[in-house]
Amino acid sequence: xxxxxxxxxxxxxxxxxxxxxxxxxxxxxxxxxxxxxxxxxxxxxxxxxxxxxxxxxxxxxxxxxxxxxxxxxxxxxxxxxxxxxxxxxxxxxxxxxxxxxxxxxxxxxxxxxxxxxxxxxxxxxxxxxxxxxxxxxxxxxxxxxxxxxxxxxxxxxxxxxxxxxxxxxxxxxxxxxxxxxxxxxxxxxxxxxx
Length: 194
Description:
This protein has 194 residues and is of the alpha/beta class. It has eight helices and six strands, in the order E-H-E-H-E-H-E-H-H-E-H-E-H-H.
């Protein structure tokens, strides 16, 4: 049976409770059947800084969603040429899973710059977009305001950032509540972000 799958892209460096709140809300309170957390690989044209290896970020995503049957972790972009564009990932997924329909999940802040994405018109023609609210500056382009392929979902506004978590770990702060228990244990055991 065909599924409507929402794609939630991110570096997930690390995945945190905010990501889970949004992904689970989209899976439970929209017409999406599943939400795939698509772990974005390291862009070879950018400095690595604090970005963990792709396999570690994927492993953390997988353990974070163990208790969420509607959520899946995906490494679909790991083998695609870099730098990669969302339109290419969507084409690969359509070819690999021709029965299913893929939609994008993005924050309202990303919708504000969506007109700058490579082939955004093609994406909108072939895919739906589910928007969750974010606190951000600027306005959404008028062409996206009442678009029939764009659905705003009244998800909780979550202002937790992976950057904040990494900096907090580096400065020995207790940010335990911001991470799923098994992700916290993985980070601690591997001595990441210190």
